[in-house]
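Replying to the earlier thread about multi-chain prediction with a worked example.

Input:
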Amino acid sequence: MHWFANPARFVRLADKILPVAFPMTLVLMGAGLYLALFASPADYQQGDSVRIMYIHVPSAYLALFAYMVMAASGFSTLVWRHPLADVAGKAAAPIGLCFTGLALATGSIWGKPMWGTWWEWDARLTSMLVLFFLYLGYIALWGAFEDRSKAARAAAILALIGVINIPIIKFSVDWWTTLHQPASLFRMGGPTIDPSMRPPLYVMLAAFQFYFITIWLWRIKAELASVRINALRLQLIRVKRDAS
Amino acid sequence: MIDMVAMDGYAPYVWTCYGLVLVVLLYLGVSSWLKQKNLIAHAKELQAATPRRPRRDRETVKGAS
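Result:
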């Protein structure tokens, strides 16, 4: 784990992963879109509106996944003061925010023709909205402190407190009576979703996962560069002051 | 093909969702890529402009040996 603590070494590793992850994203996304829109059957009850599910489920999965990345980063920031951890968490947050927004929006647009309403305050939808605000709060905390290490600590604490929301989202459909349907893919006893709908869903899940890796690594590299820029600026000021 | 576009009457809902996802993912992707590209270039410029600190320690070692 501490092997990654060296930013230069991490960037070298990222530069090895990116030439694979980026093309994989494009290929899988293309294949996923084809399968989801053209090469899969309409649902016997939902008709073609079922195709929304192929982007809704991966968005929701990535919304939770990005939060787990953020919480794990927060944990290693607080416990081991791992120098890359806060960078990794900060880089994951905007991606998670986008996916949470997309899960809420696509769910809502699907809900209108299927449920007859854009929104229902049921446990799944409400806990997902809470996740959206947790992301916003985390990003706002990063901007609220002048001192980087203070911001990192505050954001890490919020990420760890908010992690309680993750099992609530996951199991909300089992614990309470919700309008949202229960899990049909990630469940004990295997998936119950029709086999004809599995290929587009699995390919889309993989595409979104590779998309996350690509964007996350780009954002980590950007953040590391910006830390470096700040350090170099300070050094330049010091050099100029010593010279005068 | 026309059937595909019509989406069984669900066209506005299905295409809005796919459009939305595409726009958001493209925006996040392009902006993240540009950000890392520009910041890394800027860091390299600054690195080149920053003179290396004089290594006093090396002198001492030489003097001691």
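Chain A touches chain B through 39 residues (CB under 8 Å).

Feel free to reuse this layout for your own posts.
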